[in-house]
Amino acid sequence: MKKKNNSLVYLPANVKLYQFSERSLEEESGAWSVTRFHELEKPMNVLLLNKKERPLNKYLEVLYNAEKWFVRAIDVYELRS
User: Fold this and answer.
1) Rounded distance, CA 20 to CA 34, Å?
2) Domain ranges of the chain
3) How many angstroms separate the CA atoms of 6 and 26, rounded?
């Protein structure tokens, strides 16, 4: 399954989205500090901003409610046309 930047992707219900501190995003150690999180109550489509998975942690960047969030890559599904 190939995910493309700036494409809509599907997130199932109960998926957790995370925002990390800017400082921890610059580090490659994998020890990131979570500043906010949100659990989806219902499934939804979001915009995939960055398909590059972060090393070690496997997170993708998405746009949710006009903010950048990270979600585990295994929780992101490509929409079929």
Assistant:
1) 4
2) 7-78
3) 22
Q: Which fold has domain 7-78?
A: SH3 type barrels. (2.30.30)
Instruction: Judge contact between 71 and 37, C-beta under 8 A.
Output: no
User: What pLDDT, on the 0 to 100 scale, is given for residue 43?
Assistant: 97
Between 9 and 53, the more confident residue is 9
- Residue 46 CB-density burial (10 A; 0-12 exposed, 13-18 middle, 19+ buried): buried
Confidence of residue 1 (pLDDT cuts 50, 70, 90): very low
Residue type, 4: K
For the CA atoms of 54, 56, 57, 61, the dihedral, rounded to the nearest 10 degrees, stands at 10
